[in-house]
């Protein structure tokens, strides 16, 4: 697992992201939650790796993202950071760790950098978060914004609903996007927004938009790794925008079932999976313990 790749990539920095955006090359972002999921995302060439608070549900089995604690996020950030050599890393500020005041947010963001070892932080919200974003970025910590559907506010939004479907709704998202850009974000996540609206909003911004359920008019895309790998039991609800690129659950299930069957039948372990010892030593050992 720790073997370095043959041709290590150059480290992705804020400047790299700006240059990708200038060249109109889509920015590839993936979530990761621990050492192996970050290692594979980094080696697969992601530009950015996000330790999203979606880990509450997909890695910790919680009901929603509001349950995950700051300390838990920091622990996951640390394990992702240990695996990530090239991608630009982002830690998601969990609900309750940044909304009270810009000072609280800065203090949390500093912990993400010092203890979580990530290179930037993400926070949800629009124009009301502008002073907070300004406070964090002024201290030298890059901030990834998040507008449109903001899952931490699902109770206020009436659930996971597509945002910006009307003229006024779309104008509100644009207003939020312009405010977080003005406050100093280097990019922003645009979640669950109709494709045409997301493209128009993107065209009005000078920083990249990273879409999730927002179509191809965004400057980049992000998906939840567990979803796109198909690492969940059959029948689970998946949002419309998720494309399943793999069937990790199916493969893991097949392998685990085969192991169980072979343990029960005695087919595993076979001689090639065991350590030999000289015959005379084993005989001597057997003799030594015979009368115990
Ligand atoms: O928590 C998360 O994983 C996210 C992304 C899906 C944008 O916020």
Automatic annotation (TrEMBL):
GO cellular component assignments: mitochondrion
Pfam families: Pantoate_transf
Keywords for the protein's UniProt record, in alphabetical order: Pantothenate biosynthesis, Transferase
A GO biological process held by the record: pantothenate biosynthetic process
UniProt cross-references to SUPFAM superfamilies, sorted A to Z: Phosphoenolpyruvate/pyruvate domain
Record flagged with keyword Transferase: yes
Broad enzyme group: transferase
GO molecular function terms listed in the Swiss-Prot or TrEMBL record: 3-methyl-2-oxobutanoate hydroxymethyltransferase activity; magnesium ion binding
EC number of the protein: 2.1.2.11
Reactions listed under catalytic activity: (6R)-5,10-methylene-5,6,7,8-tetrahydrofolate + 3-methyl-2-oxobutanoate + H2O = 2-dehydropantoate + (6S)-5,6,7,8-tetrahydrofolate
Presence of the UniProt keyword Transferase in the record: yes
Pathway(s) of this molecule: Cofactor biosynthesis; (R)-pantothenate biosynthesis; (R)-pantoate from 3-methyl-2-oxobutanoate: step 1/2
Family under the similarity heading: Belongs to the PanB family.
Function noted in UniProt: Catalyzes the reversible reaction in which hydroxymethyl group from 5,10-methylenetetrahydrofolate is transferred onto alpha-ketoisovalerate to form ketopantoate.
Protein name as annotated: 3-methyl-2-oxobutanoate hydroxymethyltransferase
